[in-house]
């Protein structure tokens, strides 16, 4: 059985995703989160590797479907110049904690957590997602998002520090490429 876990971890690590020993960290989320203020377009500034992201110019657009349910459209510019997008939805599962949502993007794959750790709604957002695997390992994702295609380096550094202070390992975090994104239609993802 241990060989199986090591093989899975190796395969996923090679593809850019990393497993960690133990259980998911549980950072606190944004207090008094207001999904209405969060709606709109966000650009990816930095991320932990995500095997499902293949291009650059990543952006997400959120719009309200109904109370507690948000339409999610993620878009990226592939290396061949084509825009790739996927649509799903995020659902608030506990109205007492509206900053903890579950996102469904891929049919047949279980919902993924989407926790808004912190946001000022107008310039930055920090999002964390983590899933325990068999109670022994976990795989996580983290994103620093912005309302524009860039954030000041000191802001990014502070947001990284906030995540790390809550036990999230960011050793694999990389800056996202938001250069040469003119092919991304401004209406993409709306």
Describe the structure.
This protein has one domain (2-175): Lipocalin (Beta Barrel), CATH 2.40.128. The protein contains 3 helices and 10 strands. It has helices spanning 2-14, 35-38, 153-164, and strands spanning 19-21, 40-47, 56-66, 69-77, 83-92, 100-104, 112-119, 124-133, 137-146, 174-175. Strands 2-3-4-5-6-7-8-9 form an 8-stranded antiparallel beta barrel. Strand 7 (112-119) and strand 8 (124-133) form a beta hairpin.
Give, in spatial order, the strands making up the sheet with the most strands: 2-3-4-5-6-7-8-9
Write the element-wise H/E pattern from the N-terminal end onward. HEHEEEEEEEEHE
Compute the separation of the termini in Å: 45 Å
**Assembly context of the chains:** single chain
What structural class should be given to the helix and strand makeup? alpha+beta
CATH superfamily: Calycin beta-barrel core domain
CATH topology: Lipocalin
Tally of discrete structural domains: 1
CATH architecture: Beta Barrel
User: What fraction of the residues are assigned to beta strands by DSSP?
Assistant: 35-45%
Query: Helix fraction?
Result: 10-25%
What is the 3D shape? globular
Let me know the largest β-sheet.
8 strands, antiparallel, barrel
Task: Please tally the β strands and state the result.
Answer: 10
Low-confidence stretches: 1-15
CATH class: Mainly Beta
Estimate the mean pLDDT confidence: 86
User: What Rg, in angstroms, do the CA atoms define?
Assistant: 16 Å
- Number of H- or I-type helical stretches: 3
């Amino acid at each position: 059985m241990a060989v199986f876990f090591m093989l899975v971890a190796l395969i996923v690590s090679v593809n850019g995703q990393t497993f960690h020993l133990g259980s998911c960290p549980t950072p606190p989320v944004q207090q008094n989160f207001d999904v209405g203020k969060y709606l709109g377009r966000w650009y990816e500034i930095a991320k932990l590797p995500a095997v499902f992201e293949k291009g650059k110019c990543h952006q997400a657009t959120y719009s309200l479907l109904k109370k507690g349910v948000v339409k999610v459209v993620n878009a990226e510019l592939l290396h061949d110049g084509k825009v790739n997008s996927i649509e799903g939805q995020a659902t608030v599962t506990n109205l007492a904690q509206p900053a903890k949502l579950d996102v469904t993007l891929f049919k047949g794959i279980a919902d993924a957590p989407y926790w808004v750790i912190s946001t000022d709604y107008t310039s930055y957002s920090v999002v964390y997602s983590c899933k325990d695997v068999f109670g022994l390992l976990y795989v996580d994702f983290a994103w620093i998002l912005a309302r524009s295609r860039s954030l000041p380096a000191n802001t990014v550094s502070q947001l990284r520090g906030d995540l790390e202070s809550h036990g999230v390992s960011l050793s694999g975090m990389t800056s996202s490429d938001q250069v040469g994104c003119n092919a991304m239609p401004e209406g993409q993802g709306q």
